[in-house]
Amino acid sequence: MAKQIYIAVVGLGGVGKAFLSQLEFLRQRLAQQSPAIDLRLILARRSQKQLFNSNWEHLDINTVSAQLDKNGTPPPPFNETFGQLARAPGRVVLVDNTSDVGLASLYPMVLQRGISVVTPNKKAFSDRYELWDSIFKSAANGSGSASNGYVFHESTVGAGLPVLSSLKELVETGDEVTKIEGVFSGTMSFLFNSFQPLGGGGGKFAAEVKKAKELGYTEPDPRDDLNGLDVARKLTILARIAGLPVESPTSFPVQSLIPKELESCSSGDEFMEKLAQFDSQMETIKEDATNEGKVVRFVGSIDVPSKQVKVGLEKFDASHPIAALKGSDNIISFYTKRYGSNPLIIQGAGAGGDVTAMGVTGDLIKVIRLLQ
Amino acid sequence: MAKQIYIAVVGLGGVGKAFLSQLEFLRQRLAQQSPAIDLRLILARRSQKQLFNSNWEHLDINTVSAQLDKNGTPPPPFNETFGQLARAPGRVVLVDNTSDVGLASLYPMVLQRGISVVTPNKKAFSDRYELWDSIFKSAANGSGSASNGYVFHESTVGAGLPVLSSLKELVETGDEVTKIEGVFSGTMSFLFNSFQPLGGGGGKFAAEVKKAKELGYTEPDPRDDLNGLDVARKLTILARIAGLPVESPTSFPVQSLIPKELESCSSGDEFMEKLAQFDSQMETIKEDATNEGKVVRFVGSIDVPSKQVKVGLEKFDASHPIAALKGSDNIISFYTKRYGSNPLIIQGAGAGGDVTAMGVTGDLIKVIRLLQ
Asked: What are the catalytic residues (chains A, B) (predicted)?
């Protein structure tokens, strides 16, 4: 008889929708190749509505969004939902496509109830260290009981790129990671590849921010990218996997590209209007780099032996892989004892619904294999 | 009580020795973090000698090489050894660090007996398609029974770089891989990065081959690199994972860099002596590339929709990531529907005992998790 694995999806934005489409693909593939596994979507939940199949039957993925609009009910508190899921007649996987730290704070309890978690929720793994510690003390693939749930979060850094799995493998096989360096934000990548392209050119900083916003590369309020916190969260996660118990994304130096004078702006619109007044600051930085034959990029780095984590602008030679990055690509370099002077490099799109969902679906496949 | 997992290692050359050292690291880490798992090395075997602990106790890894020299006995046929291993009082993992296709042809039987296989043995997965098919029909992570062994072979392409796991994830999550392209040989990478470095220069071809041989970058007989077969084997493996049932590494166009006139050389030494007579052929290729502002590199590529696999020299713009490669690094680019115009790129050392063993140890960790 087929073994049921129950999938509960929370968050149905861009990533959530792309995940559902990949889940449908996976169900069909498993039906052909591994008929012993029966994946069932039993919960679809967004902020105001949810559909929960308390008879543990599969919700049709192709129509679930429409059904949710039409027949969704106001969702109960998460605690209540997880209590219901724990009573499923088989193993449950929670797919958290939100960025809700409140939900993340429930992961330890969720894992202890035998429910696995796969998620691109950065906040869950970059908030206070105590939450990180508590999550991995509760996970079957941490130091929790073997009957607890598994947790995977590949998409929290570099979306679907195999960044965390590669770092974990370096650490678990005994390599010494000495330095991690890269461009970890698609927004910052696009912005600086336009502001100072290899070979010269590029517009004024405020104009490039405006262009990036118009093309949909920034958050609705670009200050949420320019403050560097998104990159700091990713560095926090990488540093912790590399063995540094970083307390939070604000416990190391993070350079904000929001001019001091504009920190008090009451809205993103006001900020965007005034940003051009500070173009000369960024222009000086660009000229300094040009004079040295370099380009400026917004990067994060972790020096493991000295335990130094930092986020901000750095200058790179034209021949450096970080300088040659294109579009909104991420690049992550792992310098290790085994890899010597040439690092292990992973590069490609690090944002977007489809590639982020791919990391989540890849994690789900790992959990399914472990639960099989 | 701790669960024993029994490790049988065949092949104790550069990769085998590096693997043993990583296995010792892994045992110590597991003893601290997952005391429920007890890894035991029970067999160490090379061509002329073996040590087999038929009482299923752990062989001391630090002294196993010396013990093997001193107390090793002539090994019985593999069939007999696998019959003994199948009687272990727990799950067994065979670590095949050889490049023996005869041993590989026994994998299906080994897997059917519940023994898992982790290996960097390229020949096992690039020989006739029937063997590939038979291996995956026998594996628990193929279409074999859940009680059969698991098989992983990350190090057969790009050594420890996460090449196969990334391609599998793209395929399993429903992305459409359109093209795979890269430099898959550390030898060819080093040779062409010296023969025609970015920015000009470089020596004559025969002199660069001689230098590469002296520095230990080539096989003892450099013809084993220059014939392109090593790259063709890797392309065969990638193509099969991408869904193309390539029959063998000789069933698609492979450009050999051995001049026709030298195919009949009776020894590597004779070949090396005469190679310089053909420098003008390679010089013409280099000049043609230079005139177009390009460099020539030895690459493999797979066009998935048209099912075309090929291996040979290609010209690349200076701005192409393949042109910018350094030392003996590999680079592998996956062009897919989700990643769009900028591919997912993985780059770094693709040869060497430590990084190859890392891929094997990483695979062993996956098997341990699945057997747990």
From this structure: 234
